[in-house]
Amino acid sequence: MTGLTNMALAIALSGLVLPMAVPVALAQDTAGETAPVELAGEAIVDLVSVVQGGSDRKVRSLTNVNLTADLDLGRLVGWQGGRAHLHVLDNRGARPNDAAQTLQGVDNIEVPDAGLRLFEAWLEQDIGSSGTSLRAGLYDVNSEFYANEAAGLLLAPPFGIGSELAATGPNGPSIFPSSALAARLHVPVGNAGSFVRLGLINARASTLGDRGGVDFSFRDGLLAIAEAGRGEGRIRGTVGVWRYTRNPENQYETGQDGQPLRKPSQGAYLVIEGDLLPAGRSREVTAFLRAGLSDPHTTPFHGGFQAGLLMEPAFSGRPDSQLSLGVHHAWTSNHYRDAVRALDQDPGNETALELTFADAIAPSLSVQPDIQWVHGPGGIRGAQDVIVVTTRMTWSF
């Protein structure tokens, strides 16, 4: 699909929601308070090319369209403390990592299968007056768990969720682009923004738009995840642990009967970010560090880390400008290294450096040039370094 076709599709899909979004926005402005129904949308077009290393020099285009609706059920139907959220996702276009040939990917809107999906559909209920809430339905784990705002501008997928967790599950956990049925409990602790968060998620991610639709069988067990952290103050962060209730098949070891062994799939992670400048300055600089470890039996990864800086605004007089620098590193597992050696290649780890800049060029429209350098692509020592350049255009409405 050509870039012009992708852009036209993104604009057409996003245009479907505009007639609904405008009245809601006007109602909110007129009333001076949050509307009972809030609609929003975003259309992203990426143009990506591998300019060094990889398999070719083609320019690949891909699109991502998000349409969301948030409903205050108390104001709409008298359901006090109740909220609903819907998120429709459409992804089209090429797969730039086919050319880059990295383990962790180079574009966070690339998907294995293009299509229109119901990404999230959940209900949330407040419990008491302390801020405790229970959420249930189709749920994106990475919308709350293993996430931090300062890493959000960077395009490489590990800055969204660590690869050692993203690669787990029968077909990946309940993250972009496919979600699963889940229940999440959020409990505030004290008055300083601290919290505990617990989640139970169907291990098989499958939603409307995926082959087979929503999985109600739970035959692959559950992903149990928990994190505790602090979301306010100059230094913020979380510590989390996760484990699958059913041991998945070992990708690299078999038993005497020739069948894959089953080993536990579990791990832990840490996310920290902090403000480097005093509050009240005209510019904010935020640093972040994320790290995770997992069992080495069921994915190519034993762990990894991501670190970086976010500056906003990047330039005086450009209030919407942002500049971010990040590095991510993946430690490959011993079993994966054995598999690479079996192919007469020398295994190693994968490291990448990313520099990106974004700024508004018109109301609700931004452009974001990005460059990534990947060392040891594919976890193969001696493989030619890969350089990927991307231009992202984002229209928010």
Structure in words:
By secondary structure, the protein is mainly β. The protein has a single domain (3-396), classed as Beta Barrel (Porin). It is 13% helix and 48% strand. A 16-stranded antiparallel beta barrel has the order 1-2-3-4-5-6-7-8-9-12-13-14-15-16-17-18. Strands 10-11 form a two-stranded antiparallel ribbon. A hairpin with a 6-residue loop joins strand 13 (284-294) and strand 14 (301-312).
Count the strands?
18
Radius of gyration, in Å, reads 21 Å
Topology as H/E string? Answer: HEEHEHEEHEEEEEEEEEEHEEE
Shape: globular
Topology (elements, then pairings):
Layout (H helix, E strand, L loop, with lengths): L2 H29 L5 E16 L6 E14 H5 L4 E12 L3 H4 L14 E13 L4 E8 L23 H4 L13 E10 L4 E9 L19 E9 L4 E10 L4 E6 L5 E3 L3 E10 L8 E11 L6 E12 L9 E11 L1 H8 L8 E13 L2 E11 L10 E11 L1
Antiparallel strand pairs: 1-2, 1-18, 2-3, 3-4, 4-5, 5-6, 6-7, 7-8, 8-9, 9-12, 10-11, 12-13, 13-14, 14-15, 15-16, 16-17, 17-18
Q: Key features?
A:
18 strands; 13% helix; disordered N terminus; mainly beta; 16-stranded antiparallel barrel; 5 helices; 48% strand; 397 residues; two-stranded antiparallel ribbon; Porin
Brief summary:
Helices cover 13% and strands 48% of the residues.
